[in-house]
Structures are given as C-alpha cells and as structure tokens.
Amino acid sequence: MAVTRSQSANVLQQNLKIAINKENPDLKALTTKTIGLGQVARPVSHAGQRSALGDIRNKVSAISIDPTKKQTAIKKEIVQLSNKLQPQQSLVLNKTKATSSLKSLIETQTDYANHVHLDAEEPVHIKPEPKIPDLLRSMPSQPSTVSLVPPVKTECMDISEDKPEAFSKALLKVQDIDANDKENPQLVSEYVNDIYNYMRHLEEKYTVRPNYLEGLEVTGKMRSILIDWLCQVHHRFHLLQETLYLTVALIDRFLQLCPVPRSKLQLVGVTCMLIASKYEEMYAPELADFVYITDNAYQKKDIRDMEAKILRALDFNMGKPLCLHFLRRDSKAGQVDAMKHTLAKYLMELTIIEYDMVHHNPSEIAAGALCLSMLLLDGSKWTDTLSHYSSYSESDLMPMVHKLSTLVIKAEKSKLTAVRTKYASSKFNKISTISELQSQTLIDLAAAAEAAS
User: What is the pLDDT of residue 449?
Assistant: First the structure.
C-alpha cells in the first residue's frame, strides 16, 4: 500500500511529539513550521542582538504550560510521622507558602494511613532515624517541608552576667571596656583583644638591640641630634604623630642592619620620614620638600636610592606597633581624662630622642608613661583592669616609671628642646610646663632610678 507524502509527515510529527522533553510541553512553538519531509525548522537565532535582558525575556516567554496535561509537583512534600504519635491523636499540619494545596496534603495523609496501621496487635517496623542534636532539632524547618512532629521546646543556656567568664577576670575584677562598642563596627570589639595580642607579638619580632651603634662612626649623640631635628621637621610639615614614631622605628631598625657613615645619617632620617609619610599619611610630602628641608644637601635621586635600600633591608616590613597604639588602649582601660593622656604622650615622645631607650618595647613605654602620668596628676593607682589590658602590673612598670622621671628632669636642662617646646603650646594644653613636672613626687622617683643604677 502506497504511503502518501502527507501521511508520512503526520506519522513523523506524531513521533516527534512523543520525543519532546516533558519539561517543555509547548509543542506548538517547536513543530509549527516544517520544511520538507521530516525536517523541523529550528528556532530563529537573532544573531547580532545579544541583549542579555532581551534573551532572558524571550526565553521565559517561550515556555508555556499545557493546562490539559497534569504536571508533577516541582517541590515534593516531606511528611514525617512521630513515633510517639498515638492513634487517637490528630495530625497537625503546618502549611507553608512553598507547599501545594491543602487537598493534596489530606490525600497524602489518607494514603499514608491506608498503608501504615498504628495498631498495637500488629507492630510496624519502622527504620529508626538517626539521632539529631538538640541544636539542629531546634532550628526552623525548610519552607518546602511540612512537619508533623510537635515543636520541641528547648531551654536556653544559662549565660547570666553574674557568672564569671574566666577565673582571671573573677580574681582581678576586670571590667569589659568593650561592652559598649558592639554597635560600632570601626571599634571591632569582637576581636580587638586578638589584634593587640598580635601587636605584642610584632613588637617582639621587630625589636631593636640595645647599644646597636657601639663601635660605629655614628654615635648615640648623633642619633639624638637627628631625631630632635626630625621632630621640628615633623611639626613644620603638620604630619601625624604616628608618622614621627614610625620614622624613628625605621631609623633604628635600618641602622642596626646597615651601618652608614656620618655624612649619610641625615639622608637616612629624611628618607625614613618619607617612607613613614607614605605609610601613614593621606597626603605625603613630595620629594622636593625633603630636598628643600635639607638645604639641598641631597638630591631627589639620592633620596630615591636610599629609599630602595631601606625597603630592601627591612624586607618591606614596616608594621611595627607604635607607642601611640598601646597608649590609646591603656587610656581607655584606665578611663583617664585628656590631661593624663596628653602628659603620657609627652613622656613617650621624650623617649624617642634617648638612645638608651631604643630596646624597650612600645607597649612597656606606653604603660609606664600612663602610670607616671596618673601618679603625678592625682596619685591614682594602677588598677586590675589596666594590668589585664596592658599585660603589665604596677610592679613591672616601676623601672620604666623611674627612667621616665629622669628624662623629665633631664629635658629641663637639655639643649635638644624640640619636644619640650612642642608640648609647651596651647595645642597640647601646655603640658610640658605644668607644675607637677617639678613636684617632689617626680624628684623622688628620679632619685629611686639613680639609686637602682
């Protein structure tokens, strides 16, 4: 029997309908156009029109659902039956937005009840479920599930404030100075203690040896003259205080690794200040400014060459903690006022000129300066909270307090007056001229330092 051309085309279309993907039942969009016998036209590609939103819109609109065909549910419902559920108890349904109709849920329960008989005479062997920790059991269920198990009411862990967090805090009565900072993300109260522990690790890593200039052409007195001059340059350029402390730290770390002749000492100083300015300042001074401040003793090329030499010698590690970093933390722990904080800053800045103080850690200098400031202004004691956050007790700080006392008395007669003149201005509350710096308390502390030496 001969098969006509139209009959074979119909048979082919019927076969194509069976092979169509069930997820895309829109047969009309795929089979409306045929070319010859058994050739189905592909969807037209809009070449050159690659608008992302246009492609997505066209693809979405091309998908349609045939209402005459029953589609399977996209999200299946998970029905769990409690082992403790008695036959007399009714099933509680918790319907969420992601589930299908309530009628389908009732049909699911009916089918489940027909297959599973809760009868005492005929026990049902149900595979035991793995035990779930209480913490996971108390978590809310997924939106696509329906739970038949009554919610388990768990008791919260007792974390009342009257219980101590640690034995050390209970023993020392340490206050949580970061309790009110949780709403301020810039104060990072969650891990600020870890930051300061890491900073104490860094200050030990980048320590400076005592008497590292011994036997070299550059002496400690030359270093003091250089630092005093840099204090004036720093004040004239209106730089941050962190820039000055970092400059001194870079000078000491570089000179102990790479000794330089006396003619290059000033070049090292201005180059370290340039590096510190780039590290700390938002707008660092230009090379021409440092050439001018040295009275054209060095050229731009000299500063650039020395900069490369210093950075290679330090392996680009410039993150040594500074005294200011620790002082701010200690002042917060001691809840000191502006006068005490400013006096501690003055005492710390006196130490950067002294060659004999280069080997002390910045955290020790900051804690000792604040301790002496508190003793001179109002005689307040070093509290347990200060000992905890500074990691130094009052007895540990007394040698530093004695040394700082001698520096204050020495500054009254020293020819290096940059720091004292700086803190005599109204910007720093004229802290270097207060009467407490000539009190008997200070004199006794300095005398104790001389007796100990």
Answer: 79
Query: Hey, what amino acid is at 105?
Result: L
Q: Quick one: tokens of 372? A: 């002496």
Whether the predicted pLDDT of 71 surpasses 70: no
* 413 exposure class (CB count in 10 Å sphere: 0-12, 13-18, 19+): exposed
Measure the CA–CA gap between 31 and 38, rounded to whole angstroms. 11
pLDDT at 329: 96
Q: Identify the burial level of 277 via C-beta atoms within 10 angstroms of its C-beta, where 0-12 means exposed, 13-18 middle and 19 or more buried.
A: buried
CA distance 286 to 37: 81
Query: Could you tell me the two tokens for 203?
Result: 């200050």
Q: How many degrees, rounded to 5, is the angle at CA 168 between CA 166 and CA 170?
A: 70
Nearest 5°: the CA angle 87, 88, 94 is 85
- State if pTM tops 0.90: no
334 lies in the same domain as 408: yes
328 pLDDT band (50/70/90 cuts)? Answer: very high
In the chain, % helix, strand, coil (3-state, to 5) comes to: 55, 0, 45
* pLDDT greater than 90 at residue 232: yes
Q: Do 344 and 429 lie in a common domain?
A: yes
- Report CA Rg, the chain: 40
Tokens linked to 1: 């029997």
**Cα separation, 321 vs 74, whole angstroms:** 59
Residues 6+ apart with CB under 8 A from 60: none
Same-domain pairing of 364 and 435: yes
CA distances from 56 to 20, 29, 53, 59, 89 (A): 22, 17, 5, 5, 50
Torsion of CA 184, 190, 196, 197, to 10 degrees: 180
Residue 355, domain extent: 323-452
Give the 3-state secondary structure of residue 362: helix
Instruction: Give the Cα separation of 387 and 401 in Å (integer).
Output: 15
If you search the block for the tokens 């200050």, which residue do you land on? 203
Q: What is the pLDDT of residue 300?
A: 95
Q: Identify any residues that bridge with 448 across adjacent strands, giving them in sequence order.
A: none
Same domain, 251 and 280: yes
Q: Which two tokens stand for residue 204?
A: 């030990």
In terms of domains, do 263 and 336 share one?
no
Query: What's the whole-number mean pLDDT along residues 228-255?
Result: 96
pLDDT digits 0-9 by tens, 97-129? 444 444 444 454 545 444 444 444 444 444 444
pLDDT of residue 28: 47
Q: State residue 172's pLDDT score.
A: 52
